[in-house]
Design brief:
Elements lengths: L16 E3 L4 E3 L1 H6 L12 H8 L3 H17 L5 H16 L10 H19 L11 H21 L1 H25 L5 H9 L2 H8 L13
Helix pairs in contact: 3-8, 4-7, 5-6, 5-7, 6-7
Length: 218
């Protein structure tokens, strides 16, 4: 009985708020942090209207923590490394895993580690394709690898080194996020969803602006 009252999104907190988009009860924290990113809120949602008029302090603090965490993950990045990080983040947020196999942080960590290891091995003159252990991570790897290989082929050896550096940082972030934030198996992916505005990044991809990417807050 207790489990049936838990929020279906986080599986941790009590579900006390009726979500018109999902047509089920969710917790207030998920309502506040996943609004308009993972949840397609209707325009007549009373919680959405209230939040726009009076953003709660808890949501503001969450956003500040999220941005600080993402900036920390990107510390010391060059312009190209920052662009690669956002390329990977956008890919992860667009990625559609098979039904009943939701993408989790461990998949991201394994896939990132496998592709990074492949680039690192190639930089030593050895061509060997490293593979992750799980099937779900292997699926993610098979879709992400061609994208980064194309970038690396265009940029040469330096681009491969940058890709490996960024992938290792993504791997570490995906492993650390759940422990530091206590957010469960999708802490890193959820953080990206709250901070990175995919639509805005897509618009930047088609523009002629070559300036360094910025954090784009929804």
């Amino acid at each position: 009985m207790g489990d049936s009252m838990l929020c279906p999104l986080c599986g941790q907190r009590k579900a006390r708020r009726a979500c018109p988009a999902l047509r089920e009860q969710i917790c207030a924290v998920c309502c506040g942090t996943k609004r308009l990113t993972e949840i397609r809120c209707p325009s007549d949602c009373t919680y959405l209207a209230t939040a726009r008029e009076h953003p709660p302090a808890v949501a503001v603090r969450q956003q500040q923590r999220d941005v600080a965490a993402l900036v920390g993950y990107m510390r010391d990045f060059s312009e190209r490394q920052s662009q690669l990080f956002f390329l990977i983040a956008t890919f992860l947020l667009r990625y559609e895993p098979p039904e009943l196999h939701p993408l989790v942080d461990e998949d991201v960590a394994e896939a990132s580690a496998a592709i990074a290891a492949t680039f690192e091995t190639a930089s030593r003159g050895v061509i060997y394709e490293h593979r992750p252990n799980s099937l779900s991570a292997e699926r993610l790897t098979s879709e992400l690898r061609p994208l980064l290989a194309k970038v690396s082929d265009q940029g040469g050896e330096s681009a491969r080194r940058d890709s490996a550096v960024v992938l290792r940082r993504v791997e570490a972030a995906a492993r650390e996020a759940g422990r530091s934030a206590g957010g469960g198996r999708r802490a890193f992916i959820d953080l990206l969803g709250r901070v990175v505005n995919v639509r805005a990044l897509e618009n930047r991809e088609t523009s002629s602006d070559d300036s360094a990417p910025r954090l784009i807050i929804p």
